[in-house]
Amino acid sequence: MNKKLWIGIDDTDSKRYGCTTYTGALLIQSLREAGYNVVGYPRLVRLNPNCPYKTRGNAAIAIAVETDKIEPIEDIVIKVIESNSDLQAEGTDPGAVLLFEEPTQSLREYYWHVVRDLSTIEEAEKIAAENNARLLRWKAGRGIIGAIAAIGADLTLDKTYELIAYRKREYWGTIRLIDSESVWEMDKATYPLTFDNIDKETGEIRITPHTPCPVLLGIRGVTPNIVEEAYKILKILEPVEFYVIFETNQATDAHLQLIKIKDVKDSVSAIIDGVVKSKPSFTVGGHVFFKLEDETGEITCAAYEPTKKFRHIIVQLEPGDRVTVYGAVKKKPQGLTLNLEKIHIKSLTELHLVRAPKCSVCGKRMEKIGRAGYMCRKCKVFSSEPEIIKIERGISPGLYEVPASARRHLSKPLALTSNYKHR
Ligand code: ZN
Question: What is the pTM of this model?
Answer without folding.
Answer: 0.88
